[in-house]
Design goal:
Structural class: alpha/beta
Order of helices and strands: EHEHEHEHEEEEHHHHHHHHHHH
Radius of gyration: 20 Å
Strand order of the largest sheet: 1-8-5-4-2-3
Number of domains: 2
CATH superfamily of the largest domain: Dehydroquinate synthase-like - alpha domain
Largest sheet: 6 strands, parallel
Shape: globular
CATH topology of the largest domain: Dehydroquinate synthase-like, alpha domain
Number of helices: 15
């Protein structure tokens, strides 16, 4: 996908530039063993190592702990991270961080672990009431007042991209819906992206996180263009996510190309190291892209789906509670969204479809939404995703509840290339009930 700078012509009242943030990252097989050297370079002598209880006794955490020990870094471990964290679990993690009196952080895990570590670092470094930094209008949305302590992020899944972002997502228990905290201060200092971790991932985890990666890239390209974002704040007041831009376009295109070529292979064969390595790299690229551009409707719609689903479990995820994997909740809304947003920028939707491997022969601008939606549905079917929201138990009687859950997510919904109200939300959810 070529960068279309003509798309980004400035308009009256728009910002005159965009700002990007990302960590220093190292990508390659075995780089988890470099955690100790990086910690020492950052001046970390006592680190809080964040993980979850499923990973705590595993080889990835062991490798990172050994590397830290070799570099004479004292480690205190927090292995109570909750998969799909809540406001309560983040506050518990922050309490641990305050009492541990560390000078740096290491996270080893998926998006839940890395996001929890970001929040713990924030609230331990800058103590405040929890809702102080939570996105408005749900929270106060105040700016993080200063730098945080160094954070070395070590992802163990190939999709969330959290190792590259200044975003921490959680479920707010009082609303039973997801929201988040955004600040460039939250971006990890160093990311160690080791594709060796993917060898042990269950197929359903690869599928779900892979679709999260895909949607990050699709939403980055199809987001409201940066000169047309609704908040033209400049300088240090620019938001973390500022709309589609040439930089995010380029990274997202490469990520989509990899998803189209390698996602199905990575899901179907754990021994396909090439496919899983490429998906790990795609996730990192898509993370940088959406951190700069922002997500929009697929993510905004997904949070209510996750919060309202009952008695749902997917093999490969923790037992004992109803849980819709984040990437699954996101992809189930994808096709309905692309059919709706394509008229705003049909050429961008067609380019995305082409990157994913769709056949564009004889496709016109009028076909853009259907072509992109059709290719996403092909990938969903090939990887065993549910056939829309009805498979999770939703029907027409719950459209109002879903729309109510989505409405507070205006931070992402307003990043869509078209204006969205409550009626449109209900139509999008209705269109997402079944696809085939």
């Amino acid at each position: 996908m070529a960068c279309c700078h003509a798309d980004f012509a400035l308009v009256e009242g728009s910002d005159r530039g965009f700002t990007l943030g990302m960590p220093t990252f190292t990508f390659g097989a075995g780089v988890l063993a470099e955690a100790g050297a990086n910690a020492a370079e950052l001046g970390i002598r006592r680190a809080a190592l964040f993980t979850d209880r499923y990973l705590a006794a595993g080889e990835h955490v062991a490798k990172v702990k050994a590397a830290l020990a070799e570099s004479h870094v004292d480690v205190v471990m927090y292995d109570e991270v909750q998969i799909e964290p809540t406001d309560r679990s983040l506050q518990q993690a922050a309490l641990f961080a305050r009492e541990a009196r560390v000078d740096g952080y290491v996270s080893v895990g998926g998006g839940s672990v890395m996001d929890t570590c970001k929040a713990a670092n924030l609230y331990a470094t800058h103590p405040a009431q929890f809702m102080t930094f939570v996105n408005a209008p749900i929270g106060a949305g105040q700016r993080v007042p200063g730098v945080l302590k160094p954070h070395i992020a070590c992802p163990t899944t190939c999709g969330t991209g959290s190792e590259t972002t200044g975003i921490a997502i959680f479920t707010l228990s009082s609303l039973n819906a997801k929201t988040g905290i955004l600040s460039r201060r939250l971006i990890p200092t160093v990311a160690l992206v080791d594709p060796d971790v993917t060898k042990s991932l269950p197929a359903n985890v690869v599928a779900s996180t892979g679709f999260d990666c895909m949607s990050h890239a699709l939403e980055s390209v199809t987001a409201r263009l940066w000169p047309r974002r609704l908040n033209p704040a400049q300088g240090i007041a620019r938001p973390v996510s500022q709309g589609a831009n040439p930089f995010s376009d380029a990274l997202a295109a490469q990520a989509l190309d990899s998803v189209g070529k390698y996602l199905v292979r990575a899901v179907r064969d754990a021994a396909d190291i090439e496919a899983r390595t490429e998906m790990m790299y795609a996730a990192m690229l898509a993370g940088i892209a959406f951190n700069a551009a922002g997500c929009h409707l697929p993510h905004g719609l997904s949070y209510a789906v996750s919060g309202l689903t009952r008695d749902w479990h997917v093999a490969g995820y923790p037992e004992g509670k109803s849980l819709v994997p984040h990437g699954m909740a996101v992809v189930l809304n994808n096709p309905s969204v692309w059919r709706h947003t394509a008229p705003a920028h049909p050429e961008r939707h067609l380019r995305c479809a082409q990157c994913l491997g769709a056949d564009l022969r004889d496709a016109s601008s009028d076909d853009a939404g259907e072509v992109l939606a059709g290719r996403v549905i092909e990938l969903m079917r090939a990887t065993g995703m549910p056939n829309g929201l009805a498979a999770l138990g939703f029907d027409d009687t719950q459209l109002d509840a879903l729309a109510t859950g989505a409405e507070p997510q205006y931070r992402v919904i307003r990043n869509a290339p078209v204006d969205i109200g409550r009626d449109e939300l209900k139509r999008l959810y209705r269109a997402a009930l079944t696809y085939w």
